[in-house]
Amino acid sequence: MSRKLLLEHINVPGIHTLDVYRQKGGYRAVEKALKTLTPDEVVEEVKKSGLRGRGGAGFPTGMKWSFLAKPEGVARYLVCNADESEPGTFKDRYLMTHIPHALIEGMIVSSFALGAKTSFIYVRGEMMPQIRILEKAIAEAKNAGFLGKNILGTGYDLELYVQPGGGAYICGEETALLESLEGKRGNPRIKPPFPAIAGLYGCPTVVNNVESIAAVVPIINDGGDEYAKVGIGRSTGTKLISASGNLVRPGVYEIELGLPVEEFIYSDEWCGGIANGKRLKATVAGGSSVPVLPANLSIKLANGEPRLMSYESLSEGGFATGTMMGSGGFIAFDEDQCMVRNTWNFSRFYHHESCGQCSPCREGTGWMEKVLHRIEYGHGKMSDIDLLVDVAKKIEGNTICPLGDAAAWPVASAIRHFRDEFEWHVNNPQLSLDTNYGLANYAEPIAKAVSTEN
Amino acid sequence: MSDKVKVTIDGITVEVAPGTTILNAARQIGGDIVPPAMCYYSKLEGSGGKCRTCIVKVSKGSEKDPRPMPKLVASCRTTVMDGMEVMNITSPEVIEARSGVVEMLLINHPLDCPVCDQAGECDLQNLGYEHGLQKTRYEFERRTFERIDIGDKIQLHMNRCILCYRCVFTADQITNKRVHGILNRGDHSEISTYIQTAVDNDFSGNVIDVCPVGALTDKTFRFKNRVWFTKPIDAHRDCPTCSGKVTLWYKGADVLRVTARKDVYGEVEEFICNTCRFDKKKTADWTIEHPTHIPDTSVIASNHYETLIPLPVIQEDERLKEANRVELEKTTKF
C-alpha cells in the first residue's frame, strides 16, 4: 500500500467540515508555520522537498517561490489556479469537493511564505458546486480564526477570495488567468515580464496549481526532507492521477511517483486492468495535451526497461518515444478505440479553446481540426497526413503561450505512432466509418530498442 | 559605454540603449535584416507579440549567459541583452517558421486584393509576396463575416482582418472612449462594436491608418481609385485638434483621400483628426509642402514623378533608339 499524503482521510465522513478536518490533524501546518517558522524557512522547506508544479509544466515550486520579486511597499499575491479544464484531468475538482480545507490550509501557509496579504482561488466557472464548497469552508476557517486579521494571534493578516472564471481552458495559462482575474479578456500576456515580477495588477504574483498548494501542507507537517524521501529521483512526493478511459476502475488515485505504469494500469490496487477483458492500445499519460503513446511504449521504455510514473521516466526518449507527466490525466484506450477519432476530438477541443490572439494557433488549430474531421469521415487524402505533421510543426514553438504546443503535440504524436491507422482510414473510407482499425501491433512487446525519429 | 548594449543581428553589430527590443535594434541597422511586423506599432503601447511574423532566433542569449534561447522569439517584444546574437534572414529555421506564419495568416484571408482598397500599400500583400506559397494547401471554406459600418466614415471588413489588435490599442490610447474590441474566441474572434455602436470621436479615423490590411477602410475613398494611380503629396494646415501634418493623395487635381504621414515601416508619424482626414478634401484647405517620398520598392512609386530612371540599355541599337526617340528625349528633359 503506497503512502497517502493528500487523500489520507478522504473517506472520513464529514472531512469537508472544519471540525472533522481538525480532528484528523488539519491546520497543524498553519500553526507550525505561522508560530514557529519564518516565511523564508517555509520556502526553504518547500525547496528541500523538491515539490514540482502539479499543473503540467513540472517546474519546481520552491524555486518559483524564490523568484518572486519583493520590492518594498508593493503588495504580493498568491493565486491558486483551479481552472482545471484539460480533457482527462479532474483531480483538482475531486480534491476541492472532498477536502476543501486541505487547499485552504495550503493557501494560508503558502501566502504566509510569500508574504501575500490577499490571495485568490481562481476556479473554473463550470465548477459552481466546488465554488460554494470552498466559500463555505473559507467562512468556517475565518470563524475559527485561521483567516482574516491577526491569524492565531501571530499578527499575520490574510484575506482569501474565490473567483469564478468564465470557463475557458486558456485561463488555466497563468498570465491569461491573471488577465481574467483583473476582469479583462483572458488572453495570455507576452512574457517577459513573468508574473513573479509583474503579475496581478502589475504586482509580483505566484500562480500555483491546487495540488501543488495542497502538497505544501504535508511538507510543512513532516518537513521537506521527509517529503523528498517519497517518490523517485527528482520526482518527489505523491501525485494525484485522474485515471479515465477503458479501465476497470477509473477515478482519482494518489500514487507515489515512481510507480510502474504497468502496475498502475493492471494492479488491483489501482485501475484493475482494461475493462471487459480487452487489450490496451494506447495511453495518454498526462492529459490531452501530452503526446499519445502506443501500448508497448506506454509500459516500457524504448530500451526495454519498465516505464515509471515520474516526470523523468515518462518523458524518457523525448518526443520520439516518450510523453510527459502533464497534469496527471491518465487516459487508457482499449483495442476498439479509434485513434483518428480521438485525435480529431482533442483537436476539436483545442480549436474551440484557442484564444485567437496569435496567428499560428488561431488559424492552425482550426485547420488541423478540419483536416482530421475529413479523414475521420472518409474524405481524407494521403497527403493530408503529411500536411497535418507540417501544420503541427509550424504551430509548435511559435505561439505566445503553450496552448499551441498542446494542440500540436497530440496530433503529431498520433501520426508518429499510428500512421498506419491514419493511412487505413484514408484507403478505406467506407469501412472506417463503421469498423475500427483494431490493435495492429501496438500491444506487442518490444523486441529491441526501436529506432528513434528525427 | 556602460549605458549602451551591443547586439549582433545577422552578423551586423549595433549599439543600442538598454531596453530596446530586437526589432527596434534591427530598425536602427535597417535594410533586409529588419523583421517584418504586422501587429507591432511603435506608437502604441502594448502592441506586438501577436502575429508572430517577426520571430527571430537568438543564437546567443547574452555575454553573461551565452546559451541560445530555446524557442524562436518575437523580436518586437524581446529586449536585447549585452552581447546578444540574433539570426533573422541568415537562419533557415526562422525563414521556414515565418513562411508558416504567413501561410496561417493567409488561409482565412479572402485574397480579394483586386477589389481591396488597401492593395498596393498592404503589409500582408508584401509579406505574402516575400514569404508566401504559390499555392494554398487550405481546402476548406474560408470564414466570412458581414461587413460592418463603424460610424459613417469607416467600414470594417472583418474577412480581411488578421487580428493584430492595433485598432483596439489605437482606440484605447489615442481616443478617450473605446467602444470596439475583440468578441468571441479562437478563429471566430472578430473586431466589433456592441450592437453596431458607432465609433464616434475626433481621432477614430486613425484606425484606418494603423490597420495593416484592408479590414478597416475609409468610406470616403472606398473604390475611388487604386492607390498606385494616386500621387501622394505632403501638406499641412492649421488644425486646432491635431498637428495637421498629412499626406494628400491626388488623382489629377482632386484630393481623393487624406492620410497621416507614414514612415518607412508603414507607421504613422503623427495621428491626425477626423476633420483633416474626412472633411478637408480641397487643395485650398492645405499648404502644399512637397511630394511624399515613397520607397522604390513600393508599387506606389511605379508611376511616380520623383525618380524617372530610364530603362537600362543593354545593347546600343540605333534602330531601337530611333524608334524610341520620343521617350528618350523625355528622360533627358528631366
Would you give an account of this structure?
The complex is a heterodimer of chains A (454) and B (334). With 454 residues, chain A is of the alpha/beta class. Chain A has 19 helices and 14 strands. In chain A, the strands form four sheets. Chain A has a five-stranded mixed sheet with strand order 3-4-2-1-5. In chain A, a hairpin with a 4-residue loop joins strand 3 and strand 4 (156-164). In chain A, helix 2 runs parallel beside helix 6, helix 6 (100-114) packs across helix 9 and helix 15 (339-353) packs antiparallel against helix 16 (359-376). The longest helix of chain A is centred in the last third of the chain and has 25 residues, at 403-427. The radius of gyration of chain A is 22 Å and the shape is globular. Residues 446-450 of chain A have low confidence and may be disordered. Chain B has 334 residues and is α+β, with helices and mostly antiparallel strands. Helix content of chain B is 20%, strand content 19%. Chain B has helices at residues 22-29, 92-107, 123-131, 166-173, 206-210, 274-279, 318-323, 325-333; strands at residues 5-9, 12-16, 55-60, 73-74, 84-87, 148-150, 154-156, 180-183, 190-193, 216-218, 231-236, 245-251, 254-260, 287-291. Chain B has a five-stranded mixed sheet, sandwiched between helices. In chain B, strands 13-12-11-14 form a four-stranded antiparallel sheet. In chain B, strand 8 and strand 9 form a beta hairpin. The longest helix of chain B has 16 residues, at 92-107. The mean pLDDT of chain B is 85. The A-B interface holds A 168, 170, 185, 190, 192, 351-360, 362-367, 370, 387, 393-395, 397-400 and B 48-53, 55, 71-72, 74, 77, 79, 97, 100-101, 103-105, 107-108, 137-138, 140, 162-163, 165, 181-182, 184-189.
